[in-house]
Amino acid sequence: MDNQRIVVVGGGIVGLATAWHLQRGGAEVSVVERQEIAAGSSWGNAGWLAPALTLPLPEPAILATGIRAMLSPKSPVYVPLRPDPRLLGFLAGFARHCTDRHWRTALQVFIAANASALQAYDELTEAAGAAVEERISHASPMLAAFADEADREGLLEEFRRVNTDGGHTDYSLLDDDAVHELEPALGPGVHCGISISGQRFINPGRFVHALADAVKAAGAQIVTGREVADIDGAETRPRVRFTDGDPLEADAVVLANGAWLGRLARRHGVRRLVQAGRGYSFTVAPASPPRNPIYLPTQRVACTPLGGPSDGLRVAGMMEFRDPDAPLDPRRVDAIVEAAAPMFSGVDFTARRDEWVGSRPCTTDGLPLVGRTRTPGVYVAGGHGMWGVALGPLTGRLLAGQILRGETGDVLRSFDPLR
Known about the structure:
The chain is an alpha/beta fold. It has one domain: FAD/NAD(P)-binding domain (3-Layer(bba) Sandwich), CATH 3.50.50. 32% of the residues lie in helices and 24% in strands. It has 12 helices and 21 strands. The chain has helices at residues 13-24, 60-64, 67-70, 85-96, 100-126, 149-164, 176-182, 204-217, 261-265, 330-340, 388-405, 410-414; strands at residues 5-9, 28-33, 48-49, 77-78, 137-138, 142-146, 171-174, 192-196, 200-201, 221-224, 228-232, 239-242, 248-249, 252-255, 274-284, 294-296, 301-305, 313-321, 353-363, 369-372, 378-382. It is globular and about 65 Å long.
């Protein structure tokens, strides 16, 4: 139905992509963000559009590291020890899904979603009259670097399983000489690698702001600095209530507020827990900037060239299950530096800048929450974990199709927020 008035709560990649597609379908859209555009996990992440690595987060390898390791601030996956029944409930549910059977079931959903994820980005940047004016770079190639072949075997096994289960990852192995020839910025800690074809990357902050510009140019109202207190669905139309000022009435409301999704969505029947999985990043200026993204799987660190030489190299990583509003923990930044420094040459990590922490919305089963809730006119779009940037445009397209035309396919059914 055209000419619907729709409010999108959240000014990150998922909310803005949903707004863009709703506009293309004829809806009148307002976007409400409690801070600024791209203020959350959409800004400081690695910006990878990498289907080869967009895989279910709950995996057996996480539990294999051991609970004691997860209590260390230096661990790639860190759980601060504190009495928090909600966090303990999330961790118990997450652990139940860290099995081979659950991972392979979720993998089928990711394979289906990844098949359309890059095309969804092309749609944003190529649409006549509504194109997002920001570059998408092709990795040529994306490079995974390892200290030895034993470390490399873990990622290789994931790729083999993806290809066996119906996906397609195009990769080749690199020895010590080949990996350093391909990327001279790599240091003495690297002795082998994997070259991964067909991946892309963006400067996420710039891209999200360009997307906001496109949405605004198409007539949307974007309101920042206003926090939503509740969504009232008791009336004939949903009403957005704020912590200050008058409410907004709409034909439909989309909750795309990231790690805070559960606070607004629970009363609308969304019972699955959404936990902040916080990631950290900073920027360095290598003497010889890498040409393409570099992944350090053992260290769980992702490195992305942000543009020109002056933009630097973003170094991102870590998973920290903690309150989304907690302050940056400098120990986590130090842990990234300690893990990444031996893998590079010509990088002064003491001169880093733009230290950042952002809260990624994680679910216990690793699948996003996208679709209608029990309250007529109220929808959710979130729970993507580490893959909000990779799957944001696809999510916006799928959800707009459901809201405006009642469309539901296999991927959207798997993302059902009421599951």
